[in-house]
Amino acid sequence: MNDYNHFFRTFVVRMMKNWLIVVLLFLMLPATAQKRKDVTLTPEQQEHLQKLERMTSNTQRITFIDSVVVDKQQFLQVYHLSPEVGKVARYDDYFHTTQQYEAYVYVNELENRCFFSLEQADSTISLFTSETMGDKWTRPLKLQGINDEGEFSRLNYPFMMGDGFTFYFAAEGEEGLGGYDIYVTRYDSEEHSFLRPANIGMPFNSEANDYMYVIDEYSNLGWFATDRNQPEDKVCVYIFIPPTTRLTYRDADLDDEQLASMARIDRIADTWSNDSLRQEALQRLQTISGKHAPQPATSNDFRFVINDKLTYTRLSDFRSPDNQTLCQQLLPLQERYQRLTQTLARARDFYATASGEERQELRSEILASEQLQNELYHQIRNLQKQIRNNEIIFLTKLQ
After folding, report:
1. Is the pTM of this model over 0.70?
2. φ and ψ at 112, to 5 degrees?
């Protein structure tokens, strides 16, 4: 029995030693494999790692006030912009088509100029612009200067700042970290072309897809979307306070891992250096979210003169039952007339300096627009007259 016990103990000890050796070898494998991988990095991989390290070290200080995970196809619902900023939308939704599933559009406040992406037959995506001429959009013009060297294969998600010069977009290409990266450029009005775009860096960009960078200067809020750390059908929309100057973490007491964490936006709470600023921004977000679908007819900007003594400033002021409906028909006509008048003024200015061929093309467009403008003018005058007479008759009956 003693011999058996001795044999059993010896067997168990040997098995434990062998098991420990296997475990140690297993634990060493990742480090060994990583070391072997580092040795065999290609020049492209080495360049990518250097780019990643360089961008991480220059991570911008941004205060993120909130983040929302949503369905990928519905992410624009989180973008609650002031009316003065314009709007961002899916191309198919705005232009009522089903031909450009991957394309997006930015339209300015007056809805007389837009920037949009179009997917080509070879699956590349390019950026274009168009303006209104009458009630139609002009032929799309490809944006010049942004991709002259062909470094990008897919350009999408456009947004133009209120200054009319600063332009953001997202693109796939060798210059990025992976997937879509966000870029910024400026329009050179003398050369009629955009300057070479620059990657806006981290924390906005990552090795995942990052896109739809939008700044609302009126609410002082910004948005961008990313699929980093998300399931295939989800994206995270980050809402942040746009910085007035570019500050990085170089002066902060952060180690490499902490800096990498800020670059990845592991926790938005880590960016809350000033809670009062965040609370004020959250209040602005709540305010603008409530105004996302404004009713211009109920605004004090609305004015309708009934007679010398009576002027209405709200749609609810009308007493005649038919007039509220008629006024809702009037407002879009007035807005359309205003946009058309502004477009015609620009077209006439351009006509003065245009070439012979351009003048020939513009002439017919201007004449058609002038005819439409005249028709709109008479529709508006007749509708105003009808509303005014209805109201006066109704008020007279009440006396």
Report:
1. no
2. -115, 5
Q: How far apart are the first and last CA of the chain?
A: 122
Question: Residue 197's CB: how many other CB atoms inside 10 A?
Answer: 23
Q: Which two tokens stand for residue 178?
A: 């992976």
Q: What is the CA radius of gyration of the chain?
A: 30
Residue 70: helix, strand or coil by DSSP?
strand
Are 347 and 370 a contacting pair, CB within 8 Å? no
Enter the tokens of residue 200. 């806006």
The amino acid at 181: D
Contacts of 287 (CB under 8 A, 6+ apart): 219
Yes or no: say if 221 and 243 are a contact pair by the CB < 8 Å rule. Answer: no
Bridge partner list, 304: 312
**Distance in angstroms (rounded) separating the CA atoms of residues 234 and 254:** 31
Residue ranges in the chain whose pLDDT is less than 50: 1-37, 293-300
Q: Is 331 helix (H, G, I), strand (E, B) or coil?
A: helix
Q: Is residue 311 packed enough to be buried (19+ CB in 10 Å), middle (13-18) or exposed (0-12)? A: exposed
Give the whole-angstrom CA distance, residue 63 versus residue 275: 10
Measured from the Cβ of residue 102, the count of other Cβ atoms closer than 10 Å reads: 14
